[in-house]
Structures
1.
Amino acid sequence: MHSDVAKLVEAGRIPKTVGERLSQLAPGNFCIHKSFGAGKVIDWDLPSKKVTIDFEKSTGQTMELQFAFQKTEWIAADDFRAKKIEQLEELRSLTKSDPLQLIVHLLQSHGGSMTGDALEKELSGTVIPEPDFKKWWETAKKNLRESRLAIVPQKRTDPIILRTGDRTPAESLIADFEAARDIKGMIRALEAIAADIGAFENEADSLKRLLNDIDEGAKKAARVQLGQALQLVAARDEVISSSPALELDPTAVRLSDLLLSADATRLADEAGTLPSGRQRAVYEAFPHAFAEEWVSKIVHVFDRVGARGVTEIARILIERDAMPTLITHLRSAIARRALGPDALIWVCRERKGPSAEIFSADVGASVLNLLENDHLSDGPRKTSRLQSLLGDDKTLLTDLVGIMDVNESRNFGRRLLDCPVFGELEKKSLMARIIKARPETAELVSGVNTKRPDEILLVSWESLEKKKAELDDLIRNKIPQNLSDVKIARSYGDLRENFEYKSAKDLEKYLAHRRNALEKEISLARGTDFKGSDASKVNIGTVVTLKQSNGGELTMTVLGAWDSEPETKTVSYLSEVGKALVGRQVGDAVRVRDEVTEVMGDLTITSIAPFNP
């Protein structure tokens, strides 16, 4: 305890515990502050209850003692962060003469563990020049792994853990696995073992003990956590393949066993969350699991496994000469407008290669159809990447309209101009590309046959109230909550690898876009109950009976802009089907797409009646 403080304690003016904490802020001592970094106490004025600290990021900082008590933490003089203040040149010298000693010292000062991101933040720009850090760290990381002084993970967001005690590196890794409390912990421990498999060169027996535990863990997880079970078994297989001394017991659970235990929907949902490498291992197990049916099985999960899964499955099918089945599946799904956004993105990106034979006018229609449906649905959008692709890929629209005939290209351009997803500037930019490739579409933006920005939207009162309620919820609840989430996520630090911050900012963009869209749509909307509609021809607010080519009858109701309901055959007058029907009369033949089956059909209008609410 500092002598000046001891006198205050002896006089009974402050408690002993306060005196001990106060002594830590005595001149010459070191501390750490969350915002200012490490600092050295320069002076204090006990009567005035103030202390002056030279921080890394703010020198000569005068603080109230009470505030310093709460916001700073004492660190020893030999702490790495303290040495950065007074012995910086010594640390810089160590980066060249003994980088391992430098890293060990840094890890010890942080309790024996810190992430690669935190390590970079501590060293780059101060101890090591920022342009030199990446190259220095790659060499130092390799040497650190070889030294076995620490567990060095593959991901920079996972902790680098300093090994301590009398255990060998192999024993430490095994202990980490045995101490894991859940499947995720077991997976991380196995990844560390795979990354440091050289430590087991003479200790393979200790690895063999783990295999039974892994087997039991995978079997239990498969019932409720299939994705984690797949990860665990894939990580185990990586370890086995890296060690010549290990063999998998014939009775052990395999990836193929897990595949057979799950239905296609669950398998697609779970596999799609795995890292790319692990996904590939799962998809490579399909032939062993399903034998001759493996191609049809893997094709049916193709468009439900996300962007990484789509890419990996396509590669495997190409490598094994099994693309014809996928092409047939994609052609059918595109015709039915049933292909998901990730699969459509793959088709568009590979249009000069594997997907060339299915890249057609239907692909363009599918893209717009998916964007429109997603725009009308509730919740965060699922087609943002697909929309971005249209703008980012400078030749995609050119290639699309290049394979269309005149009418197809005009219809595609008209649908794009009517699509509520795009802003006016975005529409102009996209149409400029279409017109450059197909000059005959220029009439669409010359004021003829175009939807004017101020065109009124006819909607039902019910759908209008729903839109207003959604806008009110956005303004009152979702946007304020998101702003709060952004602030909280920002406080977690290092925005480059801050997943929570990125997610909150992505949602912020979506909410702002959604608010603008809702405000514009509501301002253009005019509510109606559709009473008194003219039934001399198909109009908004009419019920249309159509005769099918097979002799059956089909009844459709044409209502407002936001009133599509495929289950009841209710269509919006702005939809593809609605536009095909409006203006037609009894006896007219029309070709429309069924909004449930997505199949094109030739129909004849047999009657038109007013809609009765």
2.
Amino acid sequence: MEINKINEPNSTEYTILIVDDAPVNLGVLSDYLKYHGFEILVARSGENALKRVQYVQPDIILLDVMMPGIDGFETCQRLKANELTKDIPIIFMTALTETEAKVKAFEFGAVDYVTKPLQQAEVLARVTTHLKIRDLTHNLQEQNLRLQRMAKLLSRRAKQLEATHELGQQVASMLDLEELLVQVVKLIQEKFDYYFVGIWLLTEPKDILVLRAGTGKKNQEGASDNPANELLGYQISTRANHGIAAWVYQTGHVYSTDNVNLDAKYLPLNILPEAQAELALPLIYGTEVIGVLDIYLDRSVTFGLEDRTVMQILATQIAIAIRNARFYQIEKNLRQIEEQRSKELTELNASKDKFFSVLAHDLKSPFLPLLGWLDLLSEMVDTASPDKVKRTIEVTRRTAQNIYNLLENLLSWSKIQMKRIEYRPKELDLKMVIDLNMMLLGTVAFNKGIKLHNEVNQSIQVYADEDMLHTVIRNLVSNAIKFTAMGGEIVISATPQSVGNMPYLEVAVADTGVGISPNELAKLFRLDIYHTTLGTAQEKGTGLGLVMCKEMIEQNLGQIWIESEINQGTVVKFTIPLAQN
């Protein structure tokens, strides 16, 4: 409040208690001070003054020394001994002029004195001065308290940051997800002395939060009184209407309450009977909420801005650490998959060797009738009619053509197998790969009036062998053109997917062609069944293209399959790992 308001008429900022047994003095002085804007209280004796201040504490007291009953000195002494009134400035009004009396007044706690007969202007000046001094003193005291609180907060903040730094260093070095989660909740609980700390993580499909790790305080005997022993594995729906952790996941915002029993969002848990306050923070990676850091206190405490800020920093570190641990697990899984794939490829190669050995043996069979027809033909030249010789020659030709076609297909397949392509994966721009192959096949599509559309997002990066990916895309688009009639359409699209903890991309090559019957679908990708069909413009295929694509996709840790209906078109889909940024 501003001191200059003291001099403004009708101001009621300050209250003065005047204690005097002389009615004349009370009346004159009260009227004068009221005129200058003060609220006035009066007391006719020291006893009466002591009673009044129990109900209303004035800003300053004008106290007469010489009064019946207890005098001004004793009244002042009692006022200063009272916690409610000890800081109220007291100005003595006295007719005593001896130095000893004035000294005594100051010894009893008075801030000043005025002598009788009173000079009203002097009284006003002294009252105004001491009110200003009182206000300045109060301001200094408040500033001092603020500085003390600030120093306390800074000290606490320093301890929090030190603890956060230590926690950050420890979690950053952990790559095993389960060990990471256990150590994180343990470190937070011990460093900040929380009642319970838990981490909820999202499951697949993304509709359940599971408490993956948690720890609580120990009891007084030192034995574990950890509620996490019963809570681990506890599940809550991400769409639940109750539960602070569920709300935090749904909104992605921090939430705290200093009294869980009065909070409508709180979901009571019998195994946390001492819970009083709760702070829950989202674990966010990128724009995705992957879990919730849940903190409980066994006392009603408001989580301040500093607490929330420190825990938010820690929640960010935990989310990053979880991401790193998951990527480590993905890499570990990939190594295991590669090892398993290598084993499978070894077994597959052994099967192929056996397959080709059988084929080499069985190829002899078609030559036996061919040789027989040739022998018969040589005998018929001189004796049979020209028509019979001609029919025999035609049968012989067809037999030779079938053998040639089989050899041609096998040679093409052998060339692919003998190439022994080395798997060299790297980050690739999928849209660019598709655009390049569409450009190479553009003329063929144009000649059939077929439109090619690439709807893959430009920002998508995959992790694959470049040569193999080009070969797969080229074969699938070529097949789609082959089985799509004039004026048709081919569209390539891609959708992010997740297989376990590994991010994949599902690529779809869709055409508006003739479709494939269920019976024919069963023959595709089969190594032991030779299968080929003429295209809509009588185009001829090797019958081995899809088998080759299947092997290359699987070598790139993906899968390939076909969805089709007769006269409704065909969609060939395959998965391929996304690049991990």
